[in-house]
Amino acid sequence: MNREEKIMKRVQEHYDYLKQKGYEIVFLALQGSQNYELDVYDENYISDVDTKAVILPSFEDFVYNREPKSKTLVLENNEHIDVKDIRVMFETYKKQNVNFIETLFTEFKIVNPKYKDLVQPLFDNAEEVAHINNNQAIRCMAGMSKEKLKALKHPYPTIVDKINKYGYDPKQLHHILRMNDFIKKYAILRKPYKECLIPDNKEYLIQIKKGILSEEDATKLAIETDEDTYDVKTWAIGFDNAPDEINQKGLDILNKIKIDLLEKKFKEDLGVK
After folding, report:
1. What are the backbone dihedrals phi and psi of residue 210, each rounded to the nearest 5 degrees, phi first?
2. Which of 95, 100, 10, 97 is nearest to 54 (CA)?
3. Which residues are within 8 A (CB) of 239 and not within 5 positions of it... i.e. 6 or more apart?
4. Can you tell me the distance from the alpha carbon of 77 to that of 100, in angstroms, rounded to the nearest whole number?
5. For residues 51 and 28, what is the distance between their CA atoms, to the nearest angstrom?
6. Of the residues 93, 113, 218, 258, which has the fewest C-beta atoms closer than 10 A?
7. Global confidence as pTM
8. CA distances (Å), 126 to each of 131, 249, 250, 272, in order?
């Protein structure tokens, strides 16, 4: 199997796993390095396949006001599936976080045939949704860079082995560099979101992720790059408190799709034709 086939095989396995668990899936989409063409598969580094799934509540869940599901399932091979009720996921899309918006652009997704026609407008209008609030998107990019900088040398249980080996986590550094590339394309060059997802310096970032830099050089590069990202954010949205411009078309698309999907599911639950 080639790269694409191997990735889709794992995505299908995630989808099948959720079906066995009884979730009513709208779609399941890949998240992470494969979407940026930064995935690696060699003897020293293997990229996980992680996904996000949008699910529907039952009519009973809705009537009894049960808390919408939002949880992360960890598989035996340590791959992750983020499971989100459609109400949670669509509100998260409005917040413009890159890690969620990217699921609208990935080539690696599975859509439940039952809901394909209703959800297709979400993917057809992905750019509208990705630009609901440009300033908020830019703040999210800069915020992610700052989070990765804080994590660069923090001995979290999942990365402590890398801290011990390199003195820092190379993956955090590569994310800092990736966000810098992203924010410049999005805020300055105004490129389509799908193009922003793929960094120009892919090979370099892959080497960074493998830990080619010393701790001293990595720390210096991380700080300087994060500062540059913050400068771009400041240039793009300024210091003032003027209200953000909201793309109403993007909001309307999300709201209509959410209503249409919930209506179909609830009619089915109630046996209404």
Report:
1. -85, -5
2. 100
3. none
4. 22
5. 7
6. 113
7. 0.94
8. 9, 11, 8, 31
H or E element at residue 137: helix 134-151
User: Hey, which residues does 70 pair with through a beta bridge?
Assistant: 84
| Residue 168: partners with Cβ closer than 8 Å, 6 or more residues away | 152, 153, 162, 215, 218, 219, 222
Query: pLDDT of the chain along its 273 residues, tens only?
Result: 899 999 999 999 999 999 999 999 999 999 999 999 999 998 778 889 999 999 999 999 999 999 999 999 999 999 999 999 999 999 999 999 999 999 999 999 999 999 999 999 999 999 999 999 999 999 999 999 999 999 999 988 888 889 999 999 999 999 999 999 999 999 999 999 999 999 999 999 999 999 999 999 999 999 999 999 999 999 999 866 678 999 999 999 999 999 999 999 999 999 987
